[in-house]
Amino acid sequence: MSRPVRKSQAIAPFGPGAMVDFPGPVSLIHAGLDAWPFDENNPDHREFIIDDEKRLARRLGVDFFVQPPDFRRPNRHGGQQRNINLKLPFLRFPLWHVCPRCGRMHLGRYHDKDAPICEGPISTGSDAGKMHPKRKTFQVRFVAACAKGHIQDFPWVEWIFNGNSMDWKPDGIDRWLRMTSSGSASLAGVSVQAEEKDKDGKVQVVRFGANQLAKRSLAGAFVHNDPQAGEEWSKALSEINVSCSGINPVLAVGTDLRPAAGCGHPLHVVLKSATNLYFPSVVSSIYIPDIDDKSLTQEVLDLLDDRDVKNRLRESALDSDNGLVSHRAAVNALAKYYPESIVEPATLAKAANRHLLHGILLDNRTTRAFLDQCIKSASDRQLSLDAVAAAVKSLNWNADPTFILDALRSHFSGNGVEVRAANPDDEEVGYRQQEFSVFSRDLQVGYPKTDLDIRGTDITKYDTFVQSAFSRVALLNKLRETRAFEGFSRIYSTGLTPDEKRALFMAGHKKWLPAIVVRGEGIFVQFSESRLQQWLERHGMELDGRLSLMRKNMDTLAERRHREQRLITPRFVLLHTFAHLLINQLVQDCGYGSASLRERIYSAEGENPMAGILIYTAAGDSEGTMGGLVRMGQPDRLGSVIQRAMEKSRWCSSDPVCIESRGQGSDSCNLAACHSCALLPETSCEEQNRLLDRGVVLGTIENPAIGFFSGFGQW
Fold it and tell me: What angle, rounded to 10 degrees, do the helices at 570-590 and 638-649 form?
């Protein structure tokens, strides 16, 4: 069957493992990467590869990423075509279907394009026992999943037989299940019964045990409150000794070809459209070029940053006798990819030998891990010539290690040894430190500008308000964001290791993960660290007291959802809330769709503090890529935009209820923030519209001076 999905949706929210309700209606589950229409050895599939986001690839432990293939129909006029009729793999799930006319249940198969057809017999009324006209069945609404990521059909037979099915199995001919509804809005009105034909061919409900009917309602099958455990989960299946068997339709585990190995964890009964059935893990990265050389022209820099040119030149170095990029290789690369370029081949070859060769070692996971280990074990934490020579030899490469030693040392001194943090939050902070350090300086000279063009403006050209609150404003005329799918979990958003997540949607190890690339523009605003410290010293205790309820609610949420507790600081709440208020104002001033702008928060304390926000357009389409957002960041506009945002947010239309709130929004994790003042579409917010408070930004009625921008009017 053919069902359309946007390329960005194939990463989230409809990534591998997700259940999607399509028109029809039909519910499908996104199959794993083994079934994706991608073959890394097929040269036609190379157009889907993203192999120049090395920073993110090293973080996730892969070699490259693959974009979901766009669907292409055959050209009626003929001609040479590539990658036509490529479709993402989706399977029918759940497999149990029910007839809307008689309630009889039918078992489908994963690869069925059409739902089973039912003809009866009817069980009740004047037509009881008669067959009805053919009717298309529909999938049931209920499934069962465990916290380890497995998912299966609801165990109907075990449920109605109270855990003792006596090997009774429906065959669809003489035995079947039937679902009936009394019309009640509760689950008690939904019943399932086992039926079979007797010797005379009449239909009757199966009896078992002490003459007990094999019929049971769904009352009690779902949520059970356990105050002692401090969580909500269903014990109904555990009480009849039914636990997870390890079935995973994403990888066809639980079929004859791939039997389930068992799991044993408790099963949670949920609706197939429940939000806790699928939590995708998507890691986002802003592309940062790794070339810095002010002696090169912009044309040469952009050529060195081009993926095809870079790979071609590196391959030529691996194949050359001396391990260097030759003049001939540069001529061929220019002729193939940029025949109109005015760059001299000799200049390109020389620049490539200076800036690209060390990447051959860094892009190979084995040699990269070896070099990391050498640095960690060295007493001076420096990369030795012997280590580089060994890495070069392992690739059968003839390069002189002394030629690339300085470049490698410079790389590691700037980026550090790649070590996966035990706490994902710490890893994310360290990852964003690299972006923050780049955004905090100009990349106008010496950097490629194909995918990242940062133009800093002298802060003294802005009005006094901007100068007093911020230390830097940078305009990103171009930026590129890569969003990579890392895995998924069910029931709880955390609790699985990266390896456990990947085992749910790929069999064995793969060198790639799904990802999409989106391009846009943005405004980066860096807060004045000295002003922040003054504000925290003056109102730190008051701010901690105000945010204590938010922290308590977040800790309760983390405990309930099996997450790690996190530190909520006034700095982060200030940056996050300010970003929301600014986005809301930009939407009104520029006419952007509210979901087309996104935030990226840079917040950290300690030795390397961060205090900045990036507002950018990366919606996967053309909106916001024509310079409109960057124009609003110019000195003649940004100050007035921020001032209007602050003035408008000083009083919410829901005040005083909003400003006096002690907890509102999702899980009561906001204070003074509601849909009338500070909330955004959830696709635009990194925190699902949590951790917001206008009081930290503009002050409160009781304490007008507590806000960072409290100079805007009085209560």
Answer: 110
